[in-house]
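Notes, Module 5: Reading structure tokens.

Key idea: the token line is not a picture. It is a compressed description, and you learn to read it the same way you learned to read a sequence, by spotting repeated patterns. We will look at two proteins. The first is printed below with its tokens.
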Amino acid sequence: MKPAAALPDGPSARRAPALAEVNLIIPDLIAELTGSAGSGGPVRREVALDLLRRHLGGIQESVQAAFEARQLSGLAAARWLAALSDGLMQAIHAYAQAMVPAAIPAEEPPFALVATGGYGRGVLAPFSDIDLLFLTEGTAGPRSQRLVEFVLYLLWDLGLKVGHATRSVRECMAEAGRDTSVLTALVDARFLVGDRAVFDRFGDVFDRARRERGLAPFLAAKREERAARHARYGDSPYMVEPHVKEGRGGLRDLQTLYWLARYAFGTERMPELVGPDSPGGGLLSEHEARAIRRAWNFLWTVRFHLHYVAGRAEERLTFDLQPVVGARMGYAPRGRQDGVERFMKHLFLTVRDVNRLTRVLEPAIERAALGPPAARKQGNAALAAAGLALADGKLVAAPPNRDFSREPVLMLRILRAARDRRLEIHPLAVRALIRNAHHAARLRGEPEASGLFLDLLTGRGAAQWLGFMNETGFLSRFIPEWWRIVGLMQFDTYHVFTVDEHTIQAVGVLEQLGRGELAEVAPVASELIGQVHSRRALYMATLLHDIAKGRGGDHSELGARIAQEVCPRLGMTPEETETVSWLVLHHLLISQSAFKRDIEDPKTILDIADLVQSPERLRLLLVLTVADMRAVGPKVWNGWKATLLREVYWRVAEVLAGGLSVPERDVRVARARDSAAALLAAWPGADRERFLGLGYPGYWLSFDAETHARHAALVREAEASGVPLTLRTRVLDSRAVTEVTVYAADHPGLFSRIAGALAVAGASIVDARIHTLTNGMALDTFWVQDAAGGAFDQPHRLARLSALVSQALSGQLRLREEIRKVRREPARLRAVTVPPRVVFDNHASNTHTVIEVNCRDRPGLLHDVTGAISAQGLQIASAHITTYGVRAVDVFYVKDVFGLKVENERKLNALRAALQTALAPPADPAKEAPVRPATSAAG
């Protein structure tokens, strides 16, 4: 088994003296604790605790000071901390021996204190548990039990977290046979202090049992454990808030490789696997061993910073910690990239390296430990002609003369063969593909390679093969423009994945749509994907839609230009290239129109139709929009967004088909009134005509006939009862929203008060339409969701919502005070900054000024913003509310008191100033409040 921990790696001129200096104290500390220097005997327990606390504090302070002064890397600090902790354990053991007298020593079995787990490997994080095994030759006697108890209580009183077990050698082996976690801990076992012969005896027994049992059961158990861990902490290694220790590509995955190598060959360090004379005959190259070293060091450095910044054993790199850790590690802004984005890209590239190293080393360990592969045989003539063969029933490059370095196109052939024949690629072939991925650069512009790639992109399992090509490094060599987005994160709370992973997920959504798996949540896109003629253009546009992110400027415009370079290189026709470039340029058109514009305004639909011009392009654009949105993250898509996208599609499709000529406004108003009158035919004529005279043209064009009829009933009931406020709610399950209709006397600030009451009720407004009738009453409609992005449908919450609106309009509710009480956002989200911005647009609508505000979201934001708009004497006709994580993007269609657009620069400047004041965050950070649920368009 392993010797005591060595000095930390790296330059020792500045480090070793400090380590030696602290360890030189140990004999003096032991002498002082035990009284061996004099005749007074061991000190009292309280005195011992004080001495040990001071020593422990000195250890922790010296390691932290050296690490934060960058005298120690993360891995060196972890080893340093473990080595210094060894001295502490020796002192505690000596003091325990002195305090627990041995009545008849011969009757007690030998006893050894052993480090296991991470401590056994000789590495410790600042707030890691210390895992100990109290190892005995036979059953622990009374003195051994008292010693164990004494040591544990000392450690606990020192504030240390201790994982512990007391077992004999026989019990260790029995427990290891039943529990893989115990077996893994024993793989790391390292002698600390006590009877060395007991530990050596254990080492001999363990090594013999390890060889007899073989690698296969241990390997199967570790793979199962890893799969469960990945499922728990995020199977994608590219989550934007990664778990550094347990997530895919994290420290635990590297430790798994170490465990496998140690179990199979008894190696202590990964470099021992380099060279022809190493165990297994050279399983790692020098380059790969350096990559493992870099990954270990980088991840340990991140982990140390995480612990020190959080002041606890924090392993998840959340948004609030990312800028701090990145700055501590020296990542400053460079060019157009923020320091935190540079740091996270380095992290994700390291994670990718870990995944690649796992694919390289694990099968090599397995093969070396379990024996040579089954005899290779040619599969059939077609495989042989492609330069491929079978080994163990899995695909390999045909030996001995065909390999990936000589024929890089074999890397694509083997992927297509695996897909078409539903075969696995042999792990050794995967290893060879990773090692030779750089040869993919030779395939650029090569016709066969381009055809194979497009076939993989548009065929079955496209996302799977893209993910494989991305992880192995092939994709960024074959399409060099891809490299810029590998591991690229956007520091916001909207996007869940890095840009490359989001793109691959979007291609996966296309596959789901094609298989009909999303027919319930995206019925139109599921139907349209089977009707598109430009399938290759659709998939390529999805692959390239975010290719220009991180370059600065408009990523859609830059991406369109990149598409014009990439597509011809991949053998696409000029027509396909033009279509891909156009789709990339306009891939946000439908989502931005649906969520940020009034789709009841004919100009909105006509502007889209003018841009699209073609039913085929409209189909492609909608499918791409759905794929993009659903790939952003699990909480982005909901029924309300799906409804808006469908509405935009059908209205634009109708214009393109010539079925909607957009007649004059008066004609459309007359048609709407006639349709409503038909539904109210049973009413007395006077009542019917009274309602038909209430609405201005904008009202009649904003709703369908059935809604007009419901409004008529509501108005009639309100007038009959004489109540000042009438409120109705209607749950629309198909749209995942609740419709709230308010009929009350109109006055300035009405919208603001209602918005404030809805915020206090916990309802998030996703859309709103505001209408003043000819009788001076307001008929306002709000569509709201709950915090989870679903319909606000619980009866008691709806009742409370109604009561709060009534209290707000009557002045009984102190809105600002109540809004401040709303739950604040988690601390991890406060690090994401959103500069406030106000944009005026007098071209998007023929009849209204469009105001767009961007800022950090908070409860009561709409209350403040709409209050500012009303205070400027403007009337709000409709509001379109969207959130992208913590970013609010709210759009208002407004007119002045004369029913005209606001075009006077002086008025616009005054309005801008008022809105910027309203957008400013609360003065007291403790009163900043949480975000609304994400209701945004695609990224």
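Here is the second protein, with the sequence above and the tokens below, as before.
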Amino acid sequence: MRLPLFWLTDYVDPGMDASKLAARLAMTGTEVDRVHTHGVSALENFVVGRVLEREQHPDADRLSVCQVAIGEGDVSTIVCGAPNVAAGQTVGVALPGSVMPDGTRLKKAKLRGVPSNGMILAEDEVGIGSDHAGIMVLDDDLVPGTPLAQVLPISTDVLELEITPNRPDCLSVYGVAREVHAATGAPLNPPPWMEDPGTPGPVEGVTVEVQDAEFCPRFTARLFEDVKIGPSPRWLKARLMAAGQRPINNVVDITNYVMLLTGQPLHAFNFDLVAGGKLVVRRAGQGEQMTTLDDQVRTLDSSMHLIDDGEGPTSIAGIMGGQRSEVREDTTRVLMEAANWHGPTLQRTSQKLGLRTEASGRFEKGLPPEQSMWGTIVATQLMLELTGARLAPGTIDVGGEGPAPKTIRLREEKVTRLLGTAVPIREQADILEALEFDVHDAGDGLDVTVPAFRRNDVTREVDLIEEVARIWGLEKLPATIPGHGMSARLTPEQRLRRRAGDALVGAGFSEAIGWSFQAPEMARRLRIDDSAVKLRNPLSEDLAVMRTTLLGSLLTSVRHNTARGAEDVRLFEKGSVYFDRPHRREPTAAEARSTPLPDERMHLAALMTGRIRPASWGDGNPPTADFFAAKGVLETVLGALRVDFTVVRGADPFLHPGRAARVLVGGEDAGWLGEIHPGVAAEFGLARVAGFELDFGAVLPHAVVAPHYEDLTSFPAIRQDLAFWVPADRTASELVEVVRGAGGKLLKDVRVFDVYAREGQTSLAVRLEFRAGDRTLTDDEISPQREKIVKAVAEKLEGELRG
């Protein structure tokens, strides 16, 4: 939301500049995305002028040469292209050195040979309107040379606010003014809807029927006759332009102005085009069509709601009006509607139609029914003031106000306990009263009645404590550990996950954090099945399903880095993945009977591309990341967790054939390891990429949280080498596993150090290390173990000792 400060100060003046106000609001929970200036700058160069003479340009039919007084005794020659410029007019003038809204600095110029020392201004040239057809003509009583900023709001600071969904009351100028009042203590003017020029009762000739009261809790409307359509005054257009709205005409501008001021969207019907004078709020028929104000034909379904008259649909409820009843230049009767709509239903309609408006963005967050009348009152004031209209007696009001306000007990002891410090009870009351809560003393604290505009947000005592804390000052709260025996320690699982991450950081990896959502297209890019959990209400089409692997987001992150010049990239991610059914197990009986929830699993994945170590004078061309580099990192991670693992051949479609493996922990599948398939890597604009992904749920049960101390022995080891011929389809990991199993307790380490292949067979050479903690071993003790190893290899792997 764009908040012009000069509009804000109509209701509260905080007495501070924009940057300080932005910082104060941010500390109270209202995030300010940025602060910028709307309009012009170098204001000293913008002045009031008076056209003394106007002559035709000698070489251009559409240009005029004007002599303009810009101060006492100071006259400038200005060439002007506006058709309405004339002698005697009081105008706005930009002198050389002025900075225009687009950042252009005005200079002296020659136009068709005639010097021009400035510019006579139109509305759009100072950002207070969109009219460029002619110059602005100001009041005759203004004195030439008067700074133009004293006459027109030609420059203002604007706060770009990021309003959270639970605070639709802040999607209005007065709502933010209320927050500024509470945050700074600056006086707050009364709300603009305090004085109602209208009257209750029926409106002659107007009927409204609401067929779905749950969708439309309240519908208010007033009829205005003898309306004169025309341009809005400059003060109103200036506020709309600074807030990001384009002025159209006085009636349409009033609806936008009231929405921005009060937060209540409105719609103006050309009442002469409302057939039968009756409006009906109803569900749309399946396939029913209507043309909206943007000249688009919309096809509706039975889950949507519309407003129709005797001839059919005339508005999509709460989203956009219809073209058939729009206000036009010849409109003389206007029915001004301010209604309240059910947010979730309206949001689904907006999403289905791909049609999101300023109105729908407010309604979908949940507005109070009371707000409808606030908007109606302010719109009535402006219609009478700006259009010369006559208000027909009565007010359409179907539904009425919302539920009775809720009163919540705020206990002083609970405030102190949750915040970790005592906030004086009088200060608590002052803060809540500033936010327009009704406060009364109670024995152990305060009885607080919630206002209508906070009904959906403040429902519990803890919500009131949050209000007190954010206004009193979050920066004042001490850093304390909660009481009641609560522990601030990490759980064993959290400690292990953090240890795995630390191991990767030590191996030169950086942590990435990706979305849990991804595009449905990601499954095709990774060559995996597309049985992902689909979101009912996705943020966008590109974030419509839950991820089943961390690989997609990591490949995207790697590509993001390589595209910006990084050659050697090492990234890892810890995060959740989701399956549409229980993963690795059958559902329980209770799960089978209930609506199944996605099976959420915590994974760890790492990817590397480029060189495995930096180049140096002694190694100018280091090897690039491959299967074995990734396996080395995997060993580092699982070693930090004290987890034994093995790898077996894998065939995942996203991995390179022959360079793919599955990781087994405790005999169970725990993830994948290998090089990414070249075709998959190419989908992301990458070359050779290697990595792994582990399921923490399969790994952590086998991890050692607190490793036990073991004495280091000073007795020497006996190292021996053996080489075996094994069938070519046998793997090195199988040989190592068999050797370890046969070697007994004295065998401390086994490593493959040489591979030699011939047709049908592979020679694998292993280095054995035998050690005892209490003595020096002899060859006689080792020989039986060596013989067991040779025998086990022959029996289990069909291997033989190489000669």
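Summary for the second protein:
- Residues 30 and 163 are 6 Å apart (CA to CA).
- The longest strand covers residues 747-758.
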